[in-house]
Write a structure and sequence with these properties.
The strands form five sheets. The chain has a twelve-stranded parallel sheet with strand order 1-3-5-8-11-14-17-20-23-26-29-32, with no helix packed on it. The longest helix is centred in the last third of the chain and has 28 residues. Helices cover 12% and strands 34% of the residues. It has three domains: 214 residues, Pectate Lyase C-like (3 Solenoid); 140 residues, no CATH class; 31 residues. The protein is elongated.
């Protein structure tokens, strides 16, 4: 009788929660009532099986319990599988346990939760369709969010600060073997390990509009394909981005500034890098055994070591071949020339009449088409040349009629002004003479 009455009370409670559309969190003054204890879990399973309200709103401000996590959902061989849950509250404060542990479940929303100061903020395995939104994870010992074999998960507008304090191999967000993952609008900074670590094989992942600053490594991608990274700000990380075994991915509109190292690419095939701004890092881009990539409309400014290094002159086996590099702006360095080295094979530094802009380089342009008449020679063992180079410095225009060299920006047409002035003076003199003759004849 007591069990049935308890079940009725819980059923009514969930019906009331569902009918209010969860407009405000449910409050409780007692932290000793463990809603997710093993004795209560069968009721939730029963409710779900009977198609009663399947949405669960957790009480906020959970206190420490005696298990290895504050809340464990769908733990294998213990609680069964749960779907369509809504979680909000605080799961924080013990570096020896997991804040929120999700296993063998799906379609769970975690909104506005504080998951700080734990061993992991969130650890989820085999749980597709999890959405983590507007959550905070700070000061977790290992990873802020750990996602494994959980496809179609979304992590959006979360703040992850000072996580992975134990070893540098940890990460604020670690995703393993989870295709179709989306990470968007997150602030990730001051993590001892990596900001975002994507470990495949994974496909169709997206990382958008994140600020990744003051980390050991900004982003690491390994065995990733057919994915997109866009609008990321990498600032003052030890290394902005490291890629290994990455294929057919798109990278665009990112800022890389004041990092120890820029972007390193090893075994990267068929990817595009567009509209990056590299400013003041140790180096811009380093390609190792990477082929058939496109690097276009990027800007390199003030790199301390080199703007772009393709391959290594001491290791021919690490050659990077058939990459296309055009439409980029390479700003001058302390030696007044961009620092670019090509040690690969068949890399193309121009495309359909468009080369790169080489700051600080003065050149001749006899036909006035703003493209240098002399190819720009690329440093390195490949002997590559940019056949259509331009410069942000006024080119040395040569007038073919009289051979006079004019360095003005008007393309060597300054002598026309002298002709115009001479004609004007002659016209004025003739007008005066004609006027005087008429005046004498009438007098």
């Amino acid at each position: 009788m007591k069990t049935k009455s308890s079940f009725s009370i819980i059923t009514i409670l969930f019906l009331l929660i569902d009918s209010t559309s969860f407009s405000s969190p449910l409050q409780t003054e007692s932290s000793s009532y463990d809603l997710l204890s093993p004795g209560i879990f069968p009721y939730f399973s029963y409710l779900y099986d009977r198609k009663l309200p399947s949405t669960l709103l957790l009480f906020p401000d959970w206190s420490k319990n005696d298990s290895n996590s504050f809340v464990s959902i769908g733990k294998k061989d213990q609680y069964g599988t749960f779907n369509d849950l809504y979680l909000t509250g605080q799961y924080k404060g013990d570096p020896n346990i997991i804040g929120l542990h999700i296993d063998n479940s799906s379609d769970i929303q975690i909104v506005g939760s504080d998951l700080s100061g734990n061993r992991y903020g969130i650890l989820m395995r085999r749980s597709p369709g999890i959405a983590v939104t507007d959550c905070t994870a700070s000061g977790n010992l290992i990873d802020g969010f750990y996602v494994e074999r959980s496809e179609k998960c979304i992590i959006s507008f979360c703040q992850l600060i000072s996580n992975s304090a134990r070893i540098s191999n940890d990460a604020a967000i670690r995703v393993i073997g989870s295709s179709h993952t989306i990470i968007q609008g997150c602030e990730i900074r001051m993590n001892y390990g990596t900001g975002i670590f994507l470990q495949g094989p994974m496909r169709f992942c997206t990382v958008l509009d994140c600020d990744i600053n003051y980390n050991n490594e900004g982003m690491v991608l390994r065995t990733i394909s057919d994915s997109r990274v866009q609008g990321i700000e990498f600032g003052i990380d030890m290394k902005a981005m490291e890629m290994l075994d990455v294929e057919n991915c798109s990278f665009s509109d990112c800022m890389v500034y004041r990092n120890g190292e820029g972007v390193s690419m090893e075994h990267v095939i068929g990817c595009s890098f567009e509209r990056f701004e590299f400013t003041g890092s140790g180096y811009g881009v380093y390609l190792i055994s990477s082929h058939d990539n496109l690097l276009v409309e990027n800007t390199f400014t003030g790199s301390k070591s080199f703007d772009m290094l393709i391959g290594s002159p001491d290791a021919p086996s690490l050659s990077s071949d058939r990459n296309q590099i055009f439409g980029n702006l390479f700003q001058k360095d302390a030696k007044n020339l961009p620092s670019v080295h090509d040690n690969g094979n068949d890399n193309l530094w121009h495309h359909q009449g468009l080369g790169n802009t080489w700051s600080g380089w003065e050149w001749d342009d006899k036909d006035g088409d703003r493209i240098a008449d002399t190819p720009f020679e690329i440093n390195g063992t490949a002997g590559s040349k940019d056949m259509f180079p331009t410069s942000d410095v006024a080119p040395r225009m040569i007038d073919r009629t009289d051979g006079i060299i004019d360095t003005s920006e008007n393309g060597g047409g300054g002598h026309y002004w002298y002709i115009f002035i001479g004609v004007l003076v002659i016209f004025i003199l003739l007008s005066v003479i004609i006027f005087l003759k008429k005046d004498r004849s009438t007098g």
